[in-house]
Amino acid sequence: MSEPLNVSGMVLNAVPFGDFDKRVVLLTKERGRITAFARGARRQNSALLAAANPFAFGVFTVYEGRSAYTLVRAEISNYFTEVKEDFLAACYGCYFMEVAEYYSRENLDGSALLNLLYATFRALPKEQPDNELIRCIFEMRAMMLNGEYPYETADDMSLREPTRYALAYVLGAPLQRLYSFTLKPEIFAEFRSVQDRLNRTRIDRDFKSLDILRSMTAGMT
Asked: Do 61 and 6 meet the contact criterion of CB atoms below 8 Å apart?
């Protein structure tokens, strides 16, 4: 058996496997996106019962196999309980994890995307900014980290000046200040339309969690 490996990360997805196991997808700082099997994680007395679930963030001890890892231990520092207990915030969280899974890659440094995801989850339970603004900011930065964001968008003179300023700010703001602003309704509407258009033209898949979000928020905007 290989030597144990400690990775810092977050559970993006978890599904039952066999009678008592779970198959989990982790976004890790050291190895990017990895798939791991948590043996016996569905048993009530398992030490991995709570850890092998989406939203769990911490240090995971795994053994590397040929095509997947085996998760044997976890030290969870944040379950993001305040997000999970708010149904709408949890729906946004599920969408962000789905996007992170889409953009992440195996055996590549996942620290930037992991840090973005963590900061985004920290912002979700707060009253400001609005969750839809958080969504657009997250999508924009994730696209930027993947090298797919067209920087010239922020210089589009057909957009209002405050919109261009907000776009430029998101592209360059330090992570700890990323979710520190709000926008007037008319500016946010334009800001969101820009990001929604980029999503349609630059992302080649549909997200089930986004469809659920759209149905839930249709009457709120």
From this structure: yes
Is the Cβ–Cβ distance between 149 and 198 less than 8 Å? yes
Number of domains in the chain: 2
Is residue 70 domain-shared with residue 95, that is, in the same domain?
Answer: no
**Who's near 20: CB < 8 A, 6+ residues apart?**
39, 40, 41, 42, 43, 46
Q: Hey, what's the torsion of the CAs at 173, 55, 95, 190, to 10 degrees?
A: -30
Q: Is the same domain home to 58 and 100?
A: no
CATH code of the domain in which 13 resides: 2.40.50.140
Pairing of strands 32-38, 69-78: parallel
Nearest to 122 by CA among 94, 80, 90: 80
Check residue 220 and give its pLDDT.
60
- Same domain, yes or no, for 146 and 192? yes
Output the pLDDT for position 1.
Answer: 60
To the question of pTM greater than 0.90 for the whole model, the response is: yes
State how far Cα 61 lies from the chain centre: 21
Residue 120, domain extent: 83-217
pLDDT (tens digit, 9 = 90+) per residue, 113-147?
Answer: 999 999 999 999 888 899 999 999 999 999 999 99
Q: Work out whether strand 32-38 and strand 5-17 pair parallel, antiparallel, or are unpaired.
A: unpaired
> pLDDT at position 221, please?
52
